[in-house]
Design goal:
mainly alpha, binds 2-acetamido-2-deoxy-beta-D-glucopyranose
Length: about 210
């Protein structure tokens, strides 16, 4: 178990370094968001608050993507909505990273005064992954073959951001990685196919798909 956890760490570090870094070459939206967040207080925040807020923010955007039908499944319609989704997820990544400066008991405290455990973290992560990759799957299901080649790179970008978010959360709750992944996998069975189809390597590596 210990060596498994260590090897997950190595995979995480490798995945973040080798896949995420080139994505963010140049002026990255994540850096811009980080700059905006500078000086903001994280006093009343926790991993639960950050991830719950993320789900609330992301739900309407993924719902918009879910409403897209064959007739409006064009780059012009899809790209701006996916751009909103990327900004929202980038924001969440910054919020998660900002938590790292807090003591672990603060990070994992829940609104009802308990401690966020691996099961609860996995549930929140599963919700986020299912929202985003569910939206990706729904777009891929309606998009015309002629447009697919243009849409896929757009979806890959958002998928990679979700991978970075997953790594950021696992990095925070590092003692729980093994349990989180174990609980997470059965809850995201429905989106594994699209993760593999889009070849989101950061997620494939971390979850060993
Ligand atoms: C795409 O078309 C569907 C069906 O007409 C509509 O419900 C949806 O709002 C449209 N979405 C966008 C973003 O234009």
């Amino acid at each position: 178990m210990r060596s498994f956890t260590l090897s997950i760490f190595a995979t995480l570090a490798f995945a973040v370094f080798s896949y995420a870094a080139p994505m963010f070459a140049g002026p990255s939206p994540v850096d811009a968001i980080a700059a905006r967040h500078e000086g903001e207080h994280t006093k009343d925040t926790s991993l639960e608050v950050v991830l719950t807020t993320a789900i609330e923010l992301i739900t309407p955007i993924t719902a918009e993507l879910g409403c897209i039908k064959a007739e409006n499944a064009t780059v012009e319609v899809i790209a701006p909505i996916v751009a909103k989704l990327k900004i929202a997820i980038g924001d969440v990544i910054c919020d998660v990273k900002a938590l790292a400066s807090l003591p672990l008991e603060r990070i994992l405290c829940t609104l009802v005064g308990g401690v966020l455990d691996a099961v609860a973290i996995a549930k929140l992560l599963a919700c986020l992954l299912n929202l985003v990759f569910g939206a990706c799957a729904s777009i891929l299901a309606v998009v015309a073959v002629s447009v697919k080649a243009q849409i896929i790179p757009i979806l890959v970008e958002v998928g990679c951001l979700v991978g970075s978010l997953l790594c950021a959360v696992l990095g925070l709750a590092n003692g729980l990685i093994f349990d989180i992944i174990k609980c997470l996998l059965p809850q995201i069975v429905g989106c594994l196919e699209v993760i593999k189809m889009l070849d989101i390597r950061i997620i494939i590596a971390v979850l060993r798909l």
